[in-house]
Amino acid sequence: MGLSAVKGTRDILPDEVGIWQKVERAARDVLSLAGYQEIRPPIFEFTDLFVRGIGEATDVVDKEMYSFRTKGDDDITLRPEGTAGVVRSYIQHSLHAQGDVQRLWYCGPMFRYERPQKGRQRQFHQIGLELLGTDDPRADAEAIAVATDTLKAIGLANLSVSLNSVGSREDRQAFRSALTRYLEPFQDDLDPDSQARLIRNPLRILDSKVGRTQELLIGAPQLLETLCPESRSRFDRVRSQLEALGITYAIDPKLVRGLDYYTHTAFEIQSDDLGAQNAVCGGGRYDGLVSELGGPETASVGWAMGMERLILLLQEKKDAPQLPVDVYVVSKGEAAENVALAIAQQLRGAGIATSMDFSGSAFKKQFKRADRSGATWAVIIGDAEAESDRVQLKHLESGEQVTVERTDLVSAIRAPRS
Ligand code: HAM
Q: What is the value of pTM for the model shown?
């Protein structure tokens, strides 16, 4: 069997990488403008961090983690998401002691053993944001506003924001009991996944896509109706902040999210152009996570976007930018080939993006490759040039060609053209 990438992973080839860089740049600009600083935690952590942080009864921990035991007998897991690692780092380095809220963002690969399909991979990439240290409802609205600004800067439109509140831990406990009580009489009619969830994680039944289960849920108690007055009023304040910012959203009372750490605000941003895996961004408040992992009580909110999904949407708009070089060096003959690399290095050293041809093939073929490279200029070195201190400089679009002293080459390339 030939070697190929592992199922659920893919290579991002050079003709695609420009669009990834464009997305990363747009996100970095928006996040910096809002005062967020980049953090780069490791991509693997002790397994226990994710088990405690994300929750044992979640699909991510139960079925999807890439976990292994190291030669040193440590239980390690490739991070399935970014929040747990950021929180671990926040606690370990006492970032809370800096006295203010922490506005952090990250970007990188995550790993989940899921069934691959369009927009769903086993190694995927997220851009994420965490705002730690405040329970102010304006922080929830800020996080959502920065998410929508990021998506706009990336060039995406036609997205919709879904919002819900999963309440405090106590609210969730009360809802969990009410939902279980309601569903128990229908237990045998539920799909097998939901039957298992009824015992371990009944809230996730609300997420079921199975028609019969959906029907059974029509008369089920609603999360928002079971919120205590404080949680209800908190949710109303988040809503009015969003409305003041002109952010349109739809309330989705079934939005519970797949990770256990959420409290109060939960949200997702979806695109209708993506098919089944339509969530481009998901997040919410997680007021108990920092203390759960051994840090001080720290109310926090955050989100993450799936970069593959962002890029699928952009590619559907055929918006891939090119990053061509400025100069392509062509050379033929031993003496010429010997000076070609020195000239390429001279140009690179001067900050001029330069590629060169190693083929030694006929000039005609080398010029074809020069055109394909997208370069503006070709520097041509043949026997005559190799014996002098001159080169030929050709403007590839106009075909104009001049002889230039090597020492003048950089300024000739930089000179404005009439
Ligand atoms: P999540 O909803 O599990 O949340 O993931 C966030 C986003 O990552 C999803 O909306 C989706 O775009 C993308 N995503 C998830 N799984 C895959 C996959 N297998 N393939 C491709 N894309 C995927 C979290 O990860 C939370 N840590 C977000 C958060 C941050 N909440 C608070 N702070």
A: 0.90
